[in-house]
Amino acid sequence: MVEIMTENKFDYFINGEKNKWEVIIGLEVHAQVLSKSKLFSSSSTKFGAEPNTQVSLVDSALPGMLPVINQFCIEQSIKTGLGLKAKINRHSVFDRKNYFYADLPQGYQISQYKNPIVGEGEVILDMPYGTKKIGIERLHLEQDAGKSIHDMDPENTFVDLNRSGIALMEIVSKPDLRSPEEVNAYVKKLRSIMRYLATCDGNMQEGSLRADVNVSVRKVGDIKYGTRCEIKNVNSIKFMQMAIEYEAKRQVELLEDGKAVDQETRLFDTKKNKTKSMRLKEEAHDYRYFPDPDLLPLEIDKSLIDKLKKTLPELPDEKKDRFMKIYNISAYEANILVSEKEISDYYEEVIKQADKKLAANWIMGDLFAVLNKKNISIARSPVSPKNLSILINLISSEEISGRIAKEVFEIMIEKDDNPKVIVESKGLRQQSDPIELEKIITEILTKNKDKVAQYKNGKEKLFGFFIGQVMKSSGGRANPKLVNEILKSKLK
Amino acid sequence: MTDLTNFSIVDLVNGIKNKDFTSEEVTKSFIKNAENSDKLNAYITKCFDEALVSAKNFDKKNISKGLLPGIPIAVKDMFCTKDVKTTAGSKILNNFLPTYESTVTNKLWLEGAFLLGKLNCDEFAMGSSNETSFFGNVTNPFGDKIVPGGSSGGSASALAANLTPATIGTDTGGSIRQPASFTGTVGLKPTYGRCSRWGIVAFASSLDQAGPLTKTVEDCALLLHAMSGYDPKDSTSVNIKVNDFSSNLTEKVKDLTIGIPKEYRVEDMPTEIDKLWKKGIDFLKDAGVVIKDISLPHTMYALPTYYIVAPAEASSNLARYDGVKYGHRSKGNNLIEMYENTRSEGFGDEVKRRILIGTYVLSSGYYDAYYLKAQKVRKLIKEDFDKAFNNVDAILTPSTPSSAFKMGEKKDDPVSMYLNDIFTVPVNLAGLPAISIPSGYDKNNLPLGLQLIGRPFDEQMILNLSLALQKRMNFKRNIKAWWK
Amino acid sequence: MSIDKETIKHISKLARISLDDKKIDNLSKDLSSIIKFIEKLNKLNTDDIKPLTSIIDASLKYRKDEILEGKIREQILKNSPEKTDEFFVVPKVVE
Ligand SMILES: [Mg+2]
Ligand SMILES: [Zn+2]
């Protein structure tokens, strides 16, 4: 038996019976290009349509049908390449990858093999132990396949070609990832960048983002990579992590038993939490790539790249730096606030007129809790940025206490009213008039003479009791700072 | 009454416009001829009833618009035709009914023509004798048991026998020009990218091109005009102005320079062909043309290059015939068995050979040695032509190394069959336009053709030269209708 | 180079064409002569030659991102040898 352990804060190792092993991971992420129509045909890419209703003559590979490329998909992959700080290749080629499958109507997939549209780039990860740079090997455009449905009939497989021909960006990382946590951070970061760019919606439930995971292990200290296995088409981060853990352990066990790891394609069985070999199905795979003679080489004008560069939004890394520098918030807070463009937009809207630190706390605390509970995105937040900023200002100006603010916030969730109006109508404004407060305090001290005596004899814990009584009697509206001061002077 | 089926298209168009005869009369005479000619096996699908309806409708409307008003035309069965069976000469498509119309045929219909039927061809256009069709051999009207050439054999035979006034075929390595040469007709392969490939059953995408087969050079210019043009649905179609080839047609070719490539003087070439070539040179000189000896040094590598590139592309293009979406399907206990049985039963021997060769030359470990090598040689072949066209305006060669041969003669030796295309294949590899025009007869009274090769998109030049030759050749297609 | 029966079996598997032994025998002869024929290219040194990428002197033309097709399921399924109202049907894929 081998055991997975996080040896220290910084690294992830597998302790075998004989050695300590390092896990080497590379990802091939398939990201669906956000576009209206498909890569080489003008049928819709919309999710969830009736089977075979978003299929053109080209998608179903009827005789004589020819591919014509979607300009927007090219622009989307250039933008993504720019977002990954990658080299955009001015010359690229579409190749055919030949194999037979029921949901591959042409008998080949149009992809890019030797000359992809995007070359080397990078993704920066913020790990608890510091930032880490993950290399991007390439990004290429390719067609998605259709869908085979195996469980509708005992003898037959049903084929739906709605997905057939949808544009995918295959983003291949270098083998720079070292743990399931890094994979988690990497996929999230990639997703975040593409969502900022609006080039992929990153919706993993709908299959817009899937990954082939390449895993190998090597003894700590070794330089040479071990033999890798590719786990195909994993469609959630959790499954990626589980598959890596299982697969790394499996490889370590093999190697420690003196056996070899076969280079092969494997599948992750989500019911058994195991990877299994696909070798039988693979038996005759030789993809016979060659340039698609129905298409010409793709030549990209420098002017197009420059034009697209100008349209790029501020991306999470730059935004995070700016937030830390200008808004003076922590790296931790900045990371969370920039993780989604909508969150950072919301935050920046709130702090136009409100305290930056308080705003960060309120968004990451109370607002996220509500959004989580209701399972909605910040773009559909029940509390508008405007009203949240007013609420924060009421706190800053001490018109209401933090506790009252929470009460007001609860009301705002149900009805996005101006918190000022809520405070007025419910009479929640903080009582900061010293004369009024002194009146209440005197009354309470008079009512509790015995406790006052005990306090004066040294039972200082009773101070809290007096505060509680004052707050109770003021309906929670008393200014705690003032109450504190007055009480102290009265009890001297 | 005169036999309308002897008329050229140009004369038919004039006659219909002048109301000398009706579209219905024209259509009926071709139908009558075709119905008596089943022995030639030129038609796979006859659309005679529908054609008659179209003709009557045309006559009723009484307006002659377009380049081909009221003209019935049968086409090679490689063009997808809406609601009309399209087979590509293969069992694997023997029940396929397209729901769409190929761009090229659609252009003909927009010019006023209508479909007369679908013509036999080699299976997936793979063949040089029309002996690979699932629908049987086609006979050359020049003699029983003589092949019409291929792959547009049904088209050439139907045209020569007056079963259609003109036709269109596809040419991947000579499939229009070689059968034209074998049947004494005019056949033109346009520049790659001149005509849309959309809706044409694909054989080899980087080589395929549709083109006209006609009785005269004038008809050829007219049909080419009708079928050419940019198509945004075909990424390899070129956005270039289409000439009115007919109006610009002229036999004034004085002072043009014509190249004679020495590499086309192959071993074992019958002396008759050599004589024919000389005759062509003399006629062109007579028209005022300057003759120049040129060299196309990589010519001998063209056929081996072709037999790597074309099968490689075909092996991939024909992967879609898997019994799932359309066409023939055989039984199988699982998906893979179904595929294997479908393709084994659906494809004929020559198609299988080419798919296997294509699969082989692309397979891992062989790609560089075969496919990549072929693409390099293809570059050299293209550069040969580029250089030649710096010094000449067109190139004259024989169309074929022999006249039409007997059925079965080369059937069992694929390589000797391939050698038939030795003069036509380099043109496809270089993407150039070329025309074959009937130029004489051999000792067996079988027709022979000469080929003119032009610069990219300069079809007009080779049409003009062809016209000058046609006038001087005074070729007569003397066929007795022995098959009726 | 001649092409042996094992190789033919392998490529026929890749090409998804089933062949019986007799067919393989015949093909072995034919394919070998074709391979011999195409290997004439080996006489030519092409080390410094760049392969042809396209016969057309142009770059790829683009299409706009518009939905112009779809909702033609009947047409798409029309020619299928086996189908339901909604799907293409194939024999069970063995995993
Ligand atoms: Mg992969
Ligand atoms: Zn991929």
TL;DR of this structure?
With 484 residues, chain B is α/β, with parallel strands linked by helices. Chain B has helices at 9-17, 23-35, 48-61, 103-110, 153-160, 177-183, 217-227, 271-286, 302-317, 335-346, 349-362, 368-388, 414-418, 425-430, 459-473, and strands at 43-46, 72-76, 114-119, 167-170, 186-189, 210-214, 257-261, 290-294, 394-398, 434-441, 447-454.
Strand-helix topology:
The complex is a heterotrimer of chains A (492), B (484) and C (95).
Chain A: E1 3-5, E2 13-15, E3 20-32, E4 69-70, H1 71-83, E5 91-92, E6 95-98, E7 108-111, E8 121-127, E9 130-143, E10 147-149, E11 156-160, E12 167-173, H2 180-197, E13 209-219, E14 229-234, H3 237-256, E15 264-269, E16 274-277, H4 279-282, E17 290-291, E18 298-299, H5 302-311, H6 316-327, H7 331-338, H8 341-350, H9 356-374, H10 385-396, H11 402-414, H12 419-425, H13 434-447, H14 449-456, H15 462-473, H16 480-490
Parallel strand pairs in A: 14-15
Antiparallel strand pairs in A: 1-2, 2-3, 3-12, 3-13, 5-18, 6-7, 6-17, 8-9, 9-12, 10-11, 13-14, 15-16
Chain B: H1 9-17, H2 23-35, E1 43-46, H3 48-61, E2 72-76, H4 103-110, E3 114-119, H5 153-160, E4 167-170, H6 177-183, E5 186-189, E6 210-214, H7 217-227, E7 257-261, H8 271-286, E8 290-294, H9 302-317, H10 335-346, H11 349-362, H12 368-388, E9 394-398, H13 414-418, H14 425-430, E10 434-441, E11 447-454, H15 459-473
Parallel strand pairs in B: 2-3, 7-8, 7-9
Antiparallel strand pairs in B: 1-3, 4-6, 5-6, 5-10, 9-11, 10-11
Chain C: H1 5-14, H2 21-38, E1 62-63, H3 73-78, E2 88-91
The structure holds magnesium ion and zinc ion (ZN).
